[in-house]
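quick one, 200 residues, struct below
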Amino acid sequence: MDLENVVLLNQDFFCRKTDVVARDLLGKYLVYHHPQGDIVAMIAETEAYMGAGDAACHSAVGKTKRNCVMFGEAGRSYLYRIYGVHTCYNITTDMEDEAAAVLIRGMLAVGGIELLKENRPGVAAEKLLQGPGNLCRAMGWDLSLNGLSVCKKDSRIRLFAAGKPPADSEIVETTRVGISKEKDALLRFYLKGNPGVSRK
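---
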């Protein structure tokens, strides 16, 4: 991807309703400045966690050491571990008093694929970033990235818009995965037919 012909997503993009941001992130490009070169991936699958009123959202229990990044400004990386094994990557959204975030569930790698394969050897290129745990494992991300802005030109993780956004007919809206509360909320979004999606 030619980074000279794309638009960096600024904080205003993330200071909106979380479900709107989650949907609008589809088809956007995430660029990670890896020590050995840039990794580029198209966002194919997201989930919205809407804040204190969403029982499945981490902020529903109030501010804790784990979730404190959610209570800050939008456009920050929010990482946490589940089951003591998997790291998940989110981006904070909405206004500061909402404490909401979008989980990045799946992406399709388009650059830096050999770097990703170092962390997931033997996995096909289109499956490297399927699922939030696999995504972070392939990227080599850990909790040291927690709280970092994605909106600055020198950020290690940045997001860009390139080309036309996907049409409504290309987007599937469905229920979130692996939660026990608010299971019927249609807050998961993915690009129809994109191989970066973790599950259909």
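The mean pLDDT is 95.
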